[in-house]
């Protein structure tokens, strides 16, 4: 039973590995994979995590700071006995502990400004991620469509090569029968050889474009990587019927480039407000609890000294009378228990602290001015971003419009070349034209088919660029 289960598992694993090797990727799968695994996108996601941590730091500024400390130390040498007051060589041990809490009551509203700035920074990081996703999507789509163009171009070359092969066989028969000169056969053979060479080049182009796409997706298995060979229809040009001014205005409202520049300006403005907060006084409150314990002995009994009951401590200057004091004898006992000492020796302190800035070497004033300059810089960058976006939208609109017109013209040209090729074939078959004229007509027809494919995918890609500018989310792009 175990052998059967192991065999089933091995067969299943082999099936999964084979299926993975034979997997062909769709464009949507490539885009989704890139959005999940691209290094630049992962770095942008890390920026969002960092901005969230900065936001938490700003929230933490509203909370009190609580810190505890404890110390246990030993001191060996000639020191004063704190119990008897006598200098003696001894080893003492002392323990102390405390808890301190502080709360910022007012700091020129900088805590609120810091929180607002952190929220804006988090929003800016999100916009940067969106822009990165747009860029990666277009990059992957362009690489994918290039592979698809190369594949379909290869099919066109193979199809035309089959036609040439049939024509070559027929020409050989006609030459052998004496109906056509041998020069026509040589021309067809040259055309056939040239087409085989172009097929080899087309296969290499497919391989190179597949490797380029795989590298974009960070897929290392180049040998087994392939895409789904499907055709993509040319969508209608409804977006091109929209006035370009409307596309520009929509782009200014939707595009991440403008939002990033706007948030950068808001961040610069918040920095000015934060710098101005240093002009205001700060008010804080604190509370401290502390206690201590010692391993020194304690006085447990004090009694008169029977052998030397008094000692002279001075005299009265006016009368000369001697001033004496009673001598006592102290009995040193063991120290109190640890926790009992902590309870007896504890204490608290609390209060408020006010700091008023008076003069700080113009550093606050200079920092405010410096941040005001950054605000102007951010405003210029926002204005430049709008100008750049407007230029890019106009360029994308003209490119898409031109690509659509080029595609329509290529269709017309391909249809005309197809009819011309059919006519040239008929003339060649009845001997009214030579092989050179036939080959030239066929070459023009092949080139027109390749041009249709090129302009088709060029238009599809440029239309996707224009859709992004028009505010279509990257996840909603349809190919």
TrEMBL record:
GO terms for molecular function: efflux transmembrane transporter activity; porin activity. Its main location: membrane. Keywords: Cell outer membrane, Coiled coil, Membrane, Signal, Transmembrane, Transmembrane beta strand, Transport. It holds the Pfam family OEP. GO terms for cellular component: cell outer membrane; efflux pump complex. Residues 244-273 form a coiled coil. It comes from the Bacteria. Gene3D superfamilies: Outer membrane efflux proteins (OEP). Residues 1-19 form the signal peptide. It is found in: Cell outer membrane. Belongs to the outer membrane factor (OMF) (TC 1.B.17) family. This is Outer membrane protein. It comes from Salegentibacter echinorum.
